[in-house]
Amino acid sequence: MLYTTGQRSRAGSSRHRGEVVTELGPEEVRWFYKEDKRTWKPFVGHDSLQIELTYRKLCELNPGKASEQDEWEELGGSGGDSEGVEGQKGQTEASVSKEVAGPAEEIDVDSIDIGVEAVCVRGGLYEVDVKEKESYPVYWNQQERIPVMRGQWFTDGTWLPLEEEDSDLIELEHLSRFRGHQMKDTFETEAVTQQWTARMVSWGKSIHSLKLSRSHVDWHSVDEVYLYSDATTSKIARTVTQKLGFSKASSSGTRLHRGYVEEAAPEDMPPAATHIVFVVHGIGQKMDQGRIIRNTSMMRDAARKMEEKHFSDRTTEHVEFLPVEWRSKLSLDGDTVDSITPDKVRGLRDMLNSSAMDIMYYTSPLYRDEITRGLTKELNRLYTLFCSRNPEFEEKGKVSIVSHSLGCVITFDIMTGWDPVRFHHQEAPDAMETEQRRRGCEEQRLLEELHLTRMRLRDLEDQFQGLKTSSSRTSPPLKFKVENFFCMGSPLAVFLALRGIRPGNNGTQDHILPRSICQRLLNIFHPTDPVAYRLEPLILKHYSNISPVQIHWYNTSSPTPYDQIRPTLLNPLKESVSVSDSESLPSPCTSPPQNRRHYGESITNLGKASIMGAASIGKGIGGIFFSRFSRSSGQVGGTEEEPSDSEGGICETEGAAIAEEGGVAEAEEKMEDKVEDKREGSAVELDRRIDFELREGLVESRYWSAVTSHTAYWCSHDIALFLLTFMYGPNTPNETTEDNLDS
Known about the structure:
One of its GO terms (cellular component) is cytoplasm. Residues 1-20, 66-102, 576-599, 662-682 are annotated as: Disordered. GO terms for molecular function: metal ion binding; phospholipase activity. Belongs to the PA-PLA1 family. By secondary structure, this protein is α/β, with parallel strands linked by helices. The chain is built from 26 helices and 20 strands. The strands form four sheets. Strands 15-14-16-17-18-20-19 form a seven-stranded parallel beta sheet, with helices on both faces. Residues 1-6, 65-112, 185-194, 574-599, 607-665 and 732-743 have low confidence and may be disordered.
């Protein structure tokens, strides 16, 4: 995470030298959270300080909490030496439990009715309820709360906190026994004390001891504190090792430290978010609720690693990712589809109903508006909430959208305001001429009047639509302007093609998505993703023969900027292979990989890829299996005297096929015309590339990748670096312009 840590080590702190033992300061206490249910993770210094101050304010609201320490001093828990303490262990433990449990009950029931405000943590994405010691997200719903705990005593080496109940008992006992004792104030005294403590530890003697529920703690000095397990196996091991001459501490003891290894500093916090990214899911959210939250978390974690690696100098900028979950709030048909689903192979049918059925819902004129309204409302809600919590963002911040699968189509339609009803009126053919030929005079007259009436009605509808459009311009559906629109595994090109979008002669994205709506459109896909399609050939047709831009490997040093990568031609084999030659096609298992300098992450290693995701939208997988992408060294628009290698390969192959049909002379003439047409068509180039392709893994099975690639974008470090590259912009104006990937 990018921020100035400002962490201060406690090794040289005055807390350890020249002071007496007192309560821990707020900067020495560290709060933790357990998000994955396995490991406690520390909050950053700023967050921990805010939580600790709120916790102390909460304790002040309880009148019994202030006198708790005084009662402990009167308890006589100061103990004394180990011989005198042994007889008081049971009484001390019971008294400690009573004193700690009593005020805790009073806090929960009586005094905390006043309450304190929740503490905003982790860059504003979460809040901490100090009373319940739970954390919860701000911008999305999550059923399971994240537990948090207050750490005072920590294990040596790992610096993980002890369980809060044991930590509180040890802290109270430590203060009752050693409050006011002088800490080490000089290095000479420290050296002498360490020698004496080492002897005490080796002899197995302690100056104080405390019995816990499943373990006990021995104090060999003020700073030498060890935790021992009271399990039977630990006792046996401790007895055997001590008889062999080993000390008690070295055999089974764990050294404890009071206070965290680093002091919490107020400046230890991330910078304010300057760019937010809304992550929109596709199909299948109903089947696996909360999946978009986990996917966004994986993308956020990958982006944090790439920030530390490639953008460590951007200390004043910060990109934040927010999941957009639009499916669960829709009612659609209720349970009608479930009621008509047969019982046989019910599991498979339920999976299809909760995943692929979303496509049918969106193509239905009955439910399409509900889906677009739901996503629009959720996007605006998140943006409004974020601006309310970050007032400066509305003026200075930027917004981008990352959409996956069907979410790309829905987001595109929201931004452009595409209306299928209006499209039908504009494009539907009129069958009046055919009907007039079959009717009599009277019927023809009535049909003409009907036709005029329909034309008048259409004009009125156009006028009404024009009024709606003008009003929508003043009040667009989204409350923010989209800076970048990233499509991942997107079928958007198919939807646009079926809506009548055809290639033109203008090499800008305005042919598909005007820049007044979105500054940059980027289409990301894996070569074997059966759901993804290219967008560039819908703008300029000859780009179907130009390879997509390959996304840099995240470990590539000094990569070429994407806007400076030259277009290269594909070498398709489908034009030169006849039916009789189809057997000579290389098998995807035997065909060699592409000759590239770097290979990307293997989809099979990315993990957490759902098998059903790749089959959500129908596309002929066989066409992908038997297609080869190979980059040519030629350049689009080469000179006529020196044609590129790829063009020469096309001419030779097609010429051979034509020569078999009608002679060498005709073949040469036709191929010259074909090459000339190709050069004329490729004269216009895109001002900025749109299609970006992930690199295939070096040892990656294409069959398995076709199943898993559609859902494996989220944890890819290549994609995380790609997104940050366009959102952060160029790092320095003097970046290298050499093509380091193909050198």
